[in-house]
Structures are given as structure tokens and as C-alpha cells.
Amino acid sequence: MELIKMEEIKKDYFLGKTVVHALRGVDLIIDKGEFVAIWGPSGSGKTTLLNLIGTIDEASSGRLFIKGEEVKKLSDDRRTEFRNRSIGFIFQGFNLIPVLSALENVMLPLEIMGTPHFNVRETALKRLDEVGLSDFVEHLPDKLSGGQRQRVAIARALVTNPNLVIADEPTANLDSETSHKIIELMRGLNENEKTTFIFSTHDPRLLDQVERLVRLEDGRILNGGNEK
Amino acid sequence: MIKWIKIALRNILKNKRRSFVTLIAIAIGFAAVSLFQGYIHNTYEGLRKSAVRGEGLGHLTIYKQGWLEKGKIDPDKYMFSQEELKRISDLVGEDEDVILATPQINISGLVSNGRTSTIFLANGVIPRDDKTIKGAWAAFRRPVKGEGLSDKKPYGVEMGEDLASHLDLKPGGYGVIMATTLDGQMNALDIEVAGTYDTGSSATNDKYMRVPFGFAQSLYDTEKADRVVVLLNDWNKTEATRERLEDTLSGAGIACKIKTWNELSLFYLKVRGMFDMIFMFIFFIVFIIVIMSVVNTMGMAVLERTREIGTLRALGLKRRGVSLLFAVEGAMLGFLGTVFGIVLNVIVWAVIRAVGPTYIPPGYSSPVPLIVNLVPQSMFFLMLFLILLSLMAAILPARRAARQNVVDALGHV
User: Fold this and answer.
1) What average pLDDT is seen over chain B?
2) Number of C-alpha atoms within 13 angstroms, CB side, residue B353?
3) Is residue B44 exposed (0-12), middle (13-18) or buried (19+ Cβ within 10 Å)?
4) A43-66 burial by CB neighbour count: b if 16+ within 10 A, else e?
């Protein structure tokens, strides 16, 4: 079942008078429940692709459908609501809110959604338990290790039960052992909950854990985006 | 909402030094405005009592129609006759808020000790009514040295201290006053200085006297009065009672003009005008300081937390949610700043009460205590205003934060 469909997506950036073609006509379909890695060298367009799928950026041309809905036709408010309910984000730099505890960070997307407080707390605690952080719920981000922070970020991304989780180089700031654990954790959640994961990486060691590889180079998908 | 307040509070506490400077600016601004407001509140209260009780203006003064415009040219024509005075007294006395309605007459002429003479201005009052009007205020604020006016001593007068001093007259001393009657004849009467008093103003202390009403009428050789002074049970009812009495008296066919105490007390009006202007000036300065402090603090916060804004937007917080977050932070700064301001205000107020400083205002003949009132209602409204102002000042940087592109915000270093 199609979750994401991209048709001839192009994205151009302007650096002064210079036009940078970040994506040069991408066609891609990702089905529900897939565990997909976007792989490519720096500057190949991985982050741009993920930003477009995550609806935090707009394509210069082409059409993007998520759950059958064309993203371009949504207003900013609708798109933001859609993101809140359907997409979870895991960032390379974790991007936790520094003044909130691990639990409060995980509770945040549900609170934005307007879920009643009791349910919010229970759900967030459950997610933190799933990522092995039930003993660290009251810790502020700066009291956690890099791996623990990324687990908090994963719990936060999953707390709303999204259809899709987007992770932009989730292991870039972690050592290889922690990176493997994080990818394993994501893989486990993908298998158990059938959540679609799309993550970018340029670390070849992680590629044996993915079921589908989309290789990007110079803003284009190679081999039809169906390697593996 | 509680979550946003929590985030706002924690961010304020996170940047302790910057927040402290902003809070201190708001607190000092609040305390400055509130203390000055407390000072002028006390001053206005004092001036009101001084006008109503001290100057003996009462709350309302009833003049015959035309007196204020042409009374000086043809006083006899524009004074109330005895019959009119009785009717006014009866009609006004029936009003539930009126304590007293008493006729008065202003006179002027020369006063002499037998060797030297000088001009005087005097108010002819019924001594027992004058005591009612002045109440406890006279003894507390400007006590009369000597016996003072009495119904039993029809020629006993109260004299301004400087006037008595110029004439070398003390309580118990005698003199003569001279004036032309309403018919233009010269008339003179003996007086006994029953008391001396401080008018409170150096401009009037060497001219003013108070004389018994009947005595003043005798000097002017008339049975008329130029006004009726009305004392009310509550000064807040002044305007409402004026309207009521105007209806009553015009309904009874008495053509008159009723003035309130604040319309007649030029001193009150001038001082109030001056203080209001100074207040606006101080308030404007505080207004600018608060806005600049909050805009600066929130501007820095938005810049530092650009990545956080991007994250919140990515997590699904709408633009107005981001605006709200920073607006709440601005309002929290305003709230905490004004809470500190209240504490500062109370401390300064307590110190002033304990030290009891005095000063001599321009035109005053004796020192007056510096008193600052605590006015909870004004403090509450000022607090609300500054919180609202801080919130508004935060909106500008908050809107800037909300408009940021999510990808750019996430990539901010």
C-alpha cells in the first residue's frame, strides 16, 4: 500500500545568484511498513529529500503525495497538523528541548496534538520504557549520553503512533556500537509496529540492516531506488 | 497552556543574568510609577481635603445665576436674599447626601491696628457651620492659635499668621476693619483677633481672615449672602448631587449655578495638572524601558532558540503556537518583574513611613510630610498593564520566530 509517492520532484536552492539543483527530478514510491535507507555522499540531496517527505520543505516542481493527499495543496496549518499526527522526526543532532526532561520532551507532540494530560504521560512513559530509558525520565537532555538522547528522540518520534518516521542521519553523532543499537531499535519498532521508517545515512556499515536502499547521487535516484 | 508557561518559566530561569536585568528594569519601572502614583494619590487626597475642609469650599457651592460673571460689578443684584437663602437651605437640606448647607459672604477692605493698615480678604462664615465643614481636619492639619471663631463673639475674627504678624496683633488683640458697603458708603467695625492660623500658602497668609457671617454682613450693610456652601457625606457623590440639586433648585424657580470644589480650587487644578504631566512623563519613560528590555530579551531568545523553534514546528506546533510560546514568555517576564516591583514598592513605602521625611513645596509656608499611599487598585491595574505591555513587546520577535522557514531554523547554528 502506497504511503509516499513522488513524481518528478525537483528542488532548487538559490545561493546568491547561483542556483543549486538539490533534486533533479525524483520519482519514488514507498509503501507502508517499509524500512528504507536513503544513502549517498554528502551533498547528494538526502536531507532535501527527507525534508520534502517530512513536509517541512516545498518542492520547486513535481508532485508529492502522502497517504494519497497532495502535500502542496495543504495550507501551512493543515500541513503542520498532518506532520504532528502522521510523521515522527529523528534528527542528527537529537534536537531535544533543553529545558524539558526526557519525559516532557516525549510528551510534547501529544500535548501539541491536544491529548488529555493523563493519557499523554502514560503513553510517553510507555515509549520511554520501550527505548530502555524508564530510569531516566526526569533527566534533562544535557544529563544524558548521546545514545540516550537519540533514544529519547526516537521515543518522541513514535509517541503519536505516526505512519511514518523520518530520521536524518540518526547515527551521525554516535559511536558505531551505539549506532548499531539505535538502528536495531528502529528496526525492531518497524517490525513490531509496522511503522514506516525512512532514514538517511552515509555510513556503509549500517546498510546491511535495511531492507531497501535508495541511492542518491547528484540529486538523482540511482537504480530506480530499489536496491538490496 | 500550562506546558507553555512551564517552558517559558524555565527559559527565563535558564538565562538568569539576562532575565534578571530585564526583571529589574520592569521592577524598578513598576516601583517608580507606583510610588509616584502613591505620592500623588496622597497629594490629591490632601489637596481635596484642603480645598473642601481647609479652604472651606465644601463639596458644592451654589451661586445666584450671573454672580460669577457680573457679581463684582453689581454685587447686590447677584446675591441671595434672606428669603432665597431660606428656600435654598430648606430644599438642599432635604437631600439625603447633604450634611450641611450654609450661607457665606466674601468681603475685602483694609484692616488696621491703629497705626498701620493693610488690605485683607475675608470669608464671612457661620462659626458653628465652619467648624462642621472643617471637622477634625482643622485641628489636625492647620490648628488655630487662640480661641477661633465663635457664635458668642460676633466681632471675633481669625487672622492669617503673617497678616497678624505685620499688624503686630496676637490673639486677644484689637483692630479695625474698613470697607465700602454695597451702597458705596464707608463703614468700619472694631475687631478682636480671636485666633491666628496658617493658610498654608505664603501668597495668602498675609491677607486672609475669617469673620463671623453676621459681622461680614454688617460691614457690607446687607442681609444677603453671595453663596451657599454645601457639605456632603461622601465626596464621591459630588457630581451626582450637583446634578440632583440643579434639578431641584431650577424646579423651584431658583436660578442658580452650582460649582464643585475642584472647579473652584484653582490650586488643586494647577497642582493636579502639573502632577498629571509629570506622571505621564515618568510613565512614558517606564513604558519605553519596559518595551526595549522585553524586545531585546525576547529578540535574543528567538535568535538563540532558532533550532528549538524549527524542532517545535517540525513536531507539529503551528505558527501561532510559536508566537504564543514567546508571547507567554514575555508576559511571564512582565508578571515576575511586576511582582518584584510590588516587593520593591512596599519596601520603599515602609522606609518612607519609618523615616518620615518632610519638605516645603513651592508656595507653602511650612514643611509637609512626604507621604506615599499604597493604592492596591492602581497597583493591580499597573501590573496588568505592564504584563500586557511585555506580552505585546514580545509579539514582534515572536512573530519573527513563527515566520521562520522550518528547514532554515533546523539548520541554524
Assistant:
1) 89
2) 12
3) middle
4) ebbbbbbbbbbbbbbebeebebbb
Match 444677603 to its residue by C-alpha cell. B224
Nearest-Cα residue of chain A relative to residue B413: A93
Question: If you measure CA to CA, which chain A residue comes closest to B315?
Answer: A84
Domains along chain A with CATH numbers: 2-223 (3.40.50.300)
Contact yes or no for A51 and B407 at CB 8 A: yes
User: pLDDT tens digits for A13-66?
Assistant: 888 888 889 899 899 999 999 999 998 888 889 999 999 999 999 999 999 999
Burial B156-166, CB ≥16 within 10 A → b, else e: bbbbbbbbbeb
Residue B113 has which C-alpha cell? 491696628
Measured between alpha carbons, how far is A4 from B377 in angstroms, rounded to an integer? Answer: 60
Which pLDDT value is given to residue B302? 83
B373 Cα to chain A: minimum distance (Å): 41
Domain range summary for chain B, segments of one domain joined by +:
2-50+268-410, 58-261
At B315-366, the pLDDT tens digits run: 999 999 999 888 898 899 999 999 999 999 999 999 999 999 998 876 666 7
Chain A partners within 8 Å of B318 (Cβ): 76-77, 80-81
ipTM: 0.91
Q: Using one digit for the tens of pLDDT, what is the confidence trace for B128-184?
A: 998 888 876 655 555 678 888 888 888 999 999 999 999 999 899 999 999 999 888
Q: Which of A56, A99, A111 sits opposite B406 (nearest CB)?
A: A56
Q: What is the mean pLDDT of residues B248-262?
A: 91
The shortest CB-CB distance from B315 to any of A93, A104, A109 is to: A109
Q: B306 to chain A nearest CA, in Å?
A: 11
Closest-CA distance of chain B to residue A28, Å: 22
Distance of CA B256 to the CA centre of its chain: 27
> Could you give the CA distance from residue B217 to residue B156 in angstroms, rounded to a whole number?
14
Chain A contact residues (CB < 8 Å to B): 51, 54, 56-57, 76-77, 80-81, 83-85, 89, 91, 93, 95, 97-100, 104, 107-109, 111-113, 156
Which one of B7, B315, B405 has the shortest CB-CB distance to A84?
B315
Averaged pLDDT for residues B36-53: 87
Among chain B, residues having any CB pair with chain A shorter than 8 Å are: 3, 6-7, 10-11, 14, 307-308, 310-319, 321, 405-407, 410
Task: State the Cα–Cα distance between residues B311 and A36, nearest whole angstrom.
Answer: 23
Angle at B410 between CA A84 and CA A124, to 5 degrees: 40
**How far is B56 from B53, CA to CA, in rounded Å?**
5
Interface contact flag, A56 B318, Cβ < 8 Å: no
Candidates B55, B226, B213; CA nearest to B127 is B213
Which residues does chain A have with pLDDT short of 50?
none
pLDDT of B296 > 90? The answer is: no
Residue of B14, B311, B405, B408 to mutate when probing chain A, most A C-beta within 10 A: B311
pTM of full prediction above 0.80: no
Q: Answer yes or no: do B308 and A84 touch at CB < 8 A.
A: no
Residue B290 C-alpha, separation from nearest chain A C-alpha, in angstroms: 26
